[in-house]
Structure formats: structure tokens, C-alpha cells
Design brief:
- The protein has two domains: about 10-220 and about 305-495, Growth Hormone, Chain: A (Up-down Bundle), CATH 1.20.1250.20; about 230-290.
- By secondary structure, it is an all-alpha fold.
- α2 packs antiparallel against α8 (about 185-210), α5 (about 85-100) runs antiparallel to α6 and α5 (about 85-100) packs antiparallel against α8.
- Helix content is about 75%, strand content about 0%.
């Protein structure tokens, strides 16, 4: 396949876009099973509700580390047969499938938390290059369609995966209950099937899609980075200031948490700021030693010179994903206690409610799959940012509405709004971002963009337990209302985003 510039990429056919996006069907099988059942597994193994957010923090912390590294090195990878991104697809699929088989067989809480960490890292290895894949393969006019196709497969994969425990229980008569401390067979079989689907779908993309050879900008990237960073003094000054600021803030936060005996989950936030600051200072040290060619130095430097569109989207992503993480962690305990009145994880009411949550998660993903087909049309006649605003408003209202519902069936209405928001969150920000990124750093910046997904999740994992106990009096339903308010804030902020492609989108 000849070298093709970013501006001259040919239009791909529907089935070519289908094949290059199909792997997301499998990846979402893994994420959906994780999101809908992890709190259930943790609770079964003895986790207290106010500790769930802390245990869940393994997932976003893993993504924070893995995605930019994978993106950075996938930008610099090329094999005549396997291409640039596809080796990472394959590796992630193999490891994540193994993790899905281990997760429901955990016999202790520590094992389940550790497996979540490994499984999430593996899924991130496979998932991150898929975002850059759209920028690599599609011209700007087709990128909204490309990301929307990914959202479509995410929705289809998630709805099937979320329904699996319900299907095994009600259609195949597999046991939905187990002795205290054991995972029901319906959950185990769901994870096994999910592992198979993840591996198969990702490999479909690996073997049906060929990548374009590197452009000249990609080919010269390694050589450029072996030279000293331009304006080293300015770079050192900037990184020193940012590093010192983060170290000081992180240290003060840790001291305040310890002095005031605040929730232990908050240490994750303070420690993260401290470590991140130290990484900046280490990069400064390497520059002073004449080792500015190191990958870590370039990653830190590029992080501090993000395009403006990316910075604007960061605020939108923060509130959107804080809301989503609140929903993923607390929907099961909120629905089972507030609507079903369950008092323990071994009760029939709890397991009925937990199964219904899996169905609800499947429903909102199904709605997302349908909405994804219409988002490019709406964006064409309005704009990407207006489309995102409308979708996030629907999601925020949907989450808040759960507080006013007593009939479990009416939760389906709430999930319609959440599904519309989910479809947009998975596609529109990436379409807005891709046009503002340098082609040779597409993978890295897509990985860095994950920061603005992961940081709000870490924030949620560290502060939601505190809010639940100190502000919401242990009532998990209020966490969902709070999440809905955050999503509405994200919707309003989306109107401020100006992408580099503020044009009529023709797909």
C-alpha cells in the first residue's frame, strides 16, 4: 500500500469502516462485563459499599499509565505485515481474555482487585490504538462516521454483554445465587463467553484491515527525537515549575488528609499528584544530563504543549466521566437499596436488583448503538459541540430522574437519556480532537486524552466514598443525582469548545 498523506487519504467504504471498527465490539464485551459486575463481585467477596470506589480506582490508575505509553510507542511502531496499531490490538486481546476468565474465579477480595488491575491494563493496551486508528485511516470528513461506528459496536457489545447474566439465569436456567463469598455460575459463564467474544472480534479487525505505511513525518520522528529538544532552557523552566507545583500540592494534600483524618481513599489523589510532579522533575534532570532524546522526556514535554482544542475538551471530559464513574460504581447499591429495599448481598431482592442493573446497563448501551447512527447526521446540520451539548443534557437528566422513580421498569426511561449521552461521549470529543492533532503524534495524544477520562475517575474513586459518608449520609442514590448534575455542567462547557474543523461535516 503506498504512502498516503493525511490530507489525501481516500474515502473508505462502509464495510471497510465496519471491519476496522469491529474490534470494539469485543473490547466492549470486556468493559461492559467489568462495569456491570465488578461491584457485585467485590461485594460478594466482602467489600463494604464505602470502599467500592477505592477498589475501583485500580482501573483508572492503570489507564492513566498504560494509554499514553502505548500511544507513544504505537506511533513509532511499523511492521510490513502487522502495521502500526494492530500488534497492540492483538496483545491486548490475548491478555484481556485471560483476565476475564480469572476474574469471576477470584476467591478473595484482594485477588479480585488485582485481577481488575491486570484486566483493565490489558483492555487499555488493545483499546487505545483504536482511537488513533481512525485518525490514521480516515480523511477528516469521515472521522465523525468512524468514531460513531466505534460507538455503534460499543453499544452492541455492551448490551449483549450486560444481558449475559440475565440470559444465563432466565433463559438457560443457570444458577444466579451461590453461597456467601462465591460468585454465581451465571456471572462466571458470562465472563467466559465475554473472553471468547473479545478475542474473536479484535482479531477480526487485525486480519481484515491493512494500515497505510508511515508518512514521511512518521518516518523522521525517531531521528528528530534523537536530537536535543529545541529551546531546552524554556522547556526546563516550564517543566520545573509544573513539577514543583504538583509536588507541593500533592504533599500538602497528603498532610491535610493525615492531619484531619479524612477518608483514606483521598491518599490516591494526593499520591498521584506527588508522583506526577516527580516525573516532571525527573524529565528536567534528564534534559540537564543531555538525555532529552528519551521517550519519557518527549512524553512530558508534549503533555505540556497540548493543542487548545484538547485543553477545552478536558473540562468537558472531566465532568462527563465523573458522572459516568459515579453511575458505574453506585447504580447497583443505589437501585438494590433505594428501589428494591435489599438489605444484604445474599438476599433474593439484592440479586434481582443486581440483575436488573445489568439489564439497564445493556439498555443504555443499546440506545447508544442506535443513537450513534444519528449523531453524524445531527452534527452535520448543527455542529459537533451542539450535538455533544444536547446528548450530555439528556444524560444528566436521565441520571437525576432515578431519584424520582420507585417502579424498576421506569428506570428504562432514565437509561434512554444515559444511552444518548454515552454514544456522544464515545465519539464526538474524539472527532473534534482528531483534526487538531499532529498526525505523527496521534497515538500519544489520544493516550494523553485518556487522562481526562482517568483523572475524573480517580477523583470519583477518591472522593465519592467521602461524600457518601460525610455529605449523603450513606444514601447511594444521592451519588447518582450528583453525577447527573456533573454531566449537565459538562454539557454547558461543551459549548465553549472550538475545534479546528468548525465546518459543515459531510460524511
Amino acid at each position: 500500500m503506498p504512502t498516503i498523506s493525511a490530507t489525501a487519504k481516500p474515502q473508505l467504504s462502509f464495510w471497510q469502516i465496519w471491519n476496522m471498527s469491529f474490534g470494539f465490539l469485543g473490547i466492549q464485551f470486556g468493559f461492559a462485563l467489568q462495569n456491570a459486575n465488578t461491584s457485585r463481585i467485590f461485594s460478594t467477596l466482602g467489600a463494604e459499599p464505602d470502599n467500592l470506589a477505592l477498589f475501583w480506582s485500580a482501573a483508572p490508575i492503570t489507564g492513566l499509565i498504560v494509554q499514553p505509553i502505548i500511544g507513544f510507542y504505537s506511533d513509532r511502531t511499523w511492521h510490513p505485515t502487522w502495521g502500526r496499531r494492530r500488534p497492540y490490538f492483538a496483545l491486548g486481546a490475548i491478555l484481556a481474555s485471560i483476565g476475564l476468565c480469572i476474574m469471576p474465579n477470584a476467591w478473595a477480595l484482594w485477588m479480585a482487585v488485582g485481577t481488575l488491575w491486570i484486566m483493565d491494563a490489558s483492555i487499555n493496551i488493545g483499546m487505545e490504538p483504536f482511537r488513533a486508528f481512525v485518525g490514521d485511516m480516515l480523511p477528516p470528513s469521515q472521522r465523525t462516521t468512524g468514531f460513531a461506528m466505534q460507538s455503534f459496536f460499543i453499544g452492541i457489545g455492551a448490551i449483549v454483554a450486560s444481558f449475559l447474566p440475565y440470559i444465563f439465569t432466565n433463559w438457560l436456567n443457570v444458577s444466579n445465587t451461590a453461597p456467601d463469598g462465591e460468585i454465581p455460575d451465571s456471572v462466571k459463564y458470562s465472563f467466559y463467553l465475554g473472553a471468547f467474544m473479545l478475542f474473536t472480534a479484535v482479531m477480526w479487525t487485525v486480519f481484515t484491515t491493512k494500515e497505510y505505511p508511515p508518512e514521511s513525518t512518521h518516518q523522521n520522528l525517531r531521528n528528530r527525537e534523537k536530537r536535543k529538544i529545541e529551546n531546552e532552557e524554556g522547556t526546563k523552566s516550564l517543566l520545573s515549575k509544573v513539577g514543583m507545583f504538583l509536588v507541593i500540592v500533592g504533599t500538602i494534600l497528603i498532610w491535610v488528609i493525615n492531619y484531619m483524618e479524612l477518608e483514606k481513599e483521598l491518599y490516591v489523589l494526593g499520591g498521584g499528584l506527588l508522583i506526577f510532579g516527580m516525573v516532571h522533575l525527573l524529565a528536567v534532570l534528564y534534559i540537564r544530563q543531555g538525555r532529552s532524546y528519551l521517550g519519557m522526556v518527549h512524553m512530558v514535554k508534549d503533555l505540556n504543549s497540548m493543542p487548545k482544542t484538547m485543553v477545552d475538551l478536558a473540562y468537558v471530559q472531566f465532568f462527563s466521566w465523573f458522572a459516568l464513574f459515579s453511575m458505574w460504581i453506585y447504580t447497583t447499591p443505589a437501585v438494590t437499596s433505594y428501589i428494591y429495599g435489599a438489605t444484604g448481598t445474599s438476599t433474593t431482592a439484592y440479586n434481582q436488583g443486581a440483575d436488573w442493573v445489568s439489564v439497564l446497563f445493556g439498555i443504555y448501551n443499546g440506545i447508544a448503538a442506535i443513537a450513534a447512527l444519528f449523531l453524524p447526521i445531527l452534527a452535520k446540520y448543527t455542529s459537533r459541540r451542539v450535538t455533544h451539548f444536547i446528548a450530555l443534557m439528556c444524560g444528566g437528566i436521565g441520571l437525576i430522574s432515578i431519584y424520582f422513580i420507585k417502579d424498576p421498569d421506569l428506570l428504562l426511561v432514565s437509561m434512554v437519556g444515559v444511552g444518548i449521552a454515552w454514544a456522544s461521549i464515545l465519539s464526538i470529543p474524539y472527532a473534534m480532537l482528531s483534526g487538531s492533532l499532529p498526525a505523527e503524534k496521534m497515538g500519544y495524544y489520544m493516550g494523553v486524552f485518556n487522562f481526562f477520562i482517568v483523572i475524573p475517575q480517580i477523583m470519583a474513586a477518591t472522593v465519592l466514598g467521602f461524600l457518601l459518608n460525610k455529605v449523603f449520609d450513606g444514601q447511594t442514590i444521592y451519588v447518582l443525582v450528583f453525577g447527573g448534575a456533573c454531566m449537565i455542567i459538562g454539557a454547558l462547557l461543551s459549548l465553549r469548545v472550538r475545534s479546528s474543523e468548525e465546518v459543515v461535516i459531510k460524511n
